[in-house]
């Protein structure tokens, strides 16, 4: 948490202490008040009141005292309200700090780590789990608040009525302590299950909505419903039982308290004067009414801590990720090589696999060339491109841009990010956003900077302009979620137009024309060859790559060059 939040936390603790002192004073004042009401002779024992009786009638004194007592009560309530409000606000503030930090970390982490991040986990951490983490924090603060108040009240009660108080408090604490021992593991376990099942539900929803056609064709509704129901039911049951466990002691204790007071009344009245007994009982009842809820809050808070623990761990896993938070560097200046891109003995293996996906690649590419890449599926083409784009760092070997080493050890110059600015990329799994054709082609750009002429030009290069112009809404046509309103080839061409619109010096297409007919693919490639870019194209149709300057063939991670 930031320094600002630490200061706020400190302020909150001060507020809690003041709040506790107010509660203590409030309790301290009720003693003389009840004493006077039950026995007006008592007035003579309190000097200041005795002095007042010289001027006023006794009955006239009682009203102002009642008034003062009410005033301190109101004050004490106000301070507690303030504490409550501040507690929630601070927990929320820290919650959004954590959430934003988590989101930043996910975006900023190295691509190599990102590919192993499960999206359901991330969604859970940044939505459901962060809420529970905020609850955790709120309960933690409330526990502190309750503790301070309990200490304050205990202090006054110890002075007023040590024996009865000590006995009672011992009884209550042992009741809760026993509960704590019995429920601890169950609660913690439930919390973990609640978290896991939430992730499972997100995963199931994502996967089954994505595979809806197969589910329909295979008539697998019941299968997925059952999966969903079993996770969902277990989740709800755990939540219900955990909530019950954290709340039921209050009811039990309220009952016990009444029984206790009945017997205490019997006990006290036997050997004390009636009025005295009433006064004492009043104090005890008042103290119980104040202290019992606080103790229950302590227990409730503690049980919520146990329940929410695994969510907090989940959130912290993401928030504490060690990303060298790059953020968007302001005014980052694009860098692109002017002569060559050179691979020198580059090898790569993924972190979780020993096998080398790329083996000892030596390659020199002249800027401005059009490079075709072929090779069987799984041979390492996409991995090669990811290394070319500096998303993955070679396990060994170097890449040079002109004569600059791309991953030099003293990487202070932001070279990677400057170089990446000069790349446009159309992946196999390109993104189509749920918006208009216009927003899709100009994705990531502020609407007030849209260059419509250029967008239409890019659409023309990508052979999608006719389709756009002939549709009713033109560029404002809605594509639907994941481009559901379009054909596969139309989607691909929109993704292509987006890359072309960007106007980068290096253009990379990874099987980006796989859904197009040979004819259209050929026209698009011809258009691309006329652009002033260094272009890398992965395609399975050798015929459409024939005009490339160089053809790279990747076979089991080994690169062969055909000029
Ligand atoms: P291509 O694009 O030529 O079809 P890829 O470059 O995607 O092939 O994959 C090359 C090899 O690397 C494949 O054998 C694949 O199984 C493996 N691979 C791809 N991604 C990962 C990953 N994240 N972790 C481990 N192995 C991977
Ligand atoms: Mg691939």
Q: What is this structure's SSE topology?
A:
Layout: H1 3-38, H2 47-53, H3 58-108, H4 111-114, H5 119-160, H6 162-210, H7 212-218, H8 221-270, H9 274-319, E1 340-348, E2 358-366, E3 370-374, H10 381-388, E4 396-401, E5 404-405, H11 415-420, E6 423-426, H12 437-441, H13 452-461, H14 465-470, H15 488-502, E7 506-510, H16 518-529, E8 534-538, E9 550-555, E10 558-562
Parallel strand pairs: 3-8, 3-9, 6-7, 7-8
Antiparallel strand pairs: 1-2, 1-4, 4-5, 9-10
This protein binds adenosine-5'-diphosphate and magnesium ion.
Magnesium ion binds near residues 381, 382, 428 and 510.
Identify the notable features of this structure and list them briefly.
single chain; alpha/beta; 6-stranded mixed sheet; 4-stranded antiparallel sheet; 10 strands; 63% helix; elongated; binds adenosine-5'-diphosphate; binds magnesium ion
Task: Provide a short characterization of the protein structure.
The chain has 563 residues and is of the alpha/beta class. The protein has helices at 3-38, 47-53, 58-108, 111-114, 119-160, 162-210, 212-218, 221-270, 274-319, 381-388, 415-420, 437-441, 452-461, 465-470, 488-502, 518-529; strands at 340-348, 358-366, 370-374, 396-401, 404-405, 423-426, 506-510, 534-538, 550-555, 558-562. It starts with a helix and ends with a strand.
Strand content: 5-15%
- Major β-sheet annotation: 6 strands, mixed
SSE arrangement, N to C? HHHHHHHHHEEEHEEHEHHHHEHEEE
- Give the terminus-to-terminus CA distance: 57 Å
Helical/strand content category: alpha/beta
Low-confidence stretches: none
The radius of gyration computed from the alpha-carbon positions, rounded to a whole number of angstroms, is: 36 Å
Mean pLDDT, rounded to whole units? 87
Q: Count every beta strand, where a strand is a DSSP E run of 2 or more residues.
A: 10
Bound molecules: adenosine-5'-diphosphate, magnesium ion
Helix content: 55-70%
Q: Give the overall shape.
A: elongated
Spatial strand order of the main sheet: 6-7-8-3-9-10
Q: What is the count of helical runs?
A: 16
